Amino acid sequence: MLKEHDIPFTYREYRKEPLTVAELRRVFDLLGVEPAALLRKRDKAYGELGLTGSEDAETLLAHMAEHPTLLQRPIGIAGDRAAVGRPVENLLALK
């Protein structure tokens, strides 16, 4: 049973089914931020790829599609709105 603050959702296993570059573009458009803003700089792939965080958006999108752990998460999407779930209370705004 849902509580008043619970939001029904569908979970996507991002490692098994990574977002495509097109899906990532849409997410960043909905969030209103550039890919560098949600780049996980402590992720193993960040160092292995020699990223600096100053790469252009298309380069970062391609890397995020190939290495989904580079993307901050969770991200909730409801229609034409999105929110980064850090802190998790941010997701309540999608209700």
Helix content range: 25-40%
Spell the H/E element sequence: HHHEE
**Class of secondary structure makeup:** alpha+beta
**Uncertain stretches of 5 or more adjacent residues:** none
Overall 3D form: elongated
Number of helices: 3
CATH architecture designation: 3-Layer(aba) Sandwich
Summarize the helices and strands and which ones pair or pack.
Layout lengths: L20 H11 L12 H5 L8 H10 L8 E4 L2 E4 L11
Antiparallel strand pairs: 1-2
Q: Can you tell me about this structure?
A:
With about 100 residues, the protein is an alpha+beta fold. It contains three helices and two strands. The protein has helices spanning about 20-30, 45-50, 55-65; strands spanning about 75-80, 80-85. About 25% of the residues lie in helices and about 10% in strands. The chain has a two-stranded antiparallel sheet.
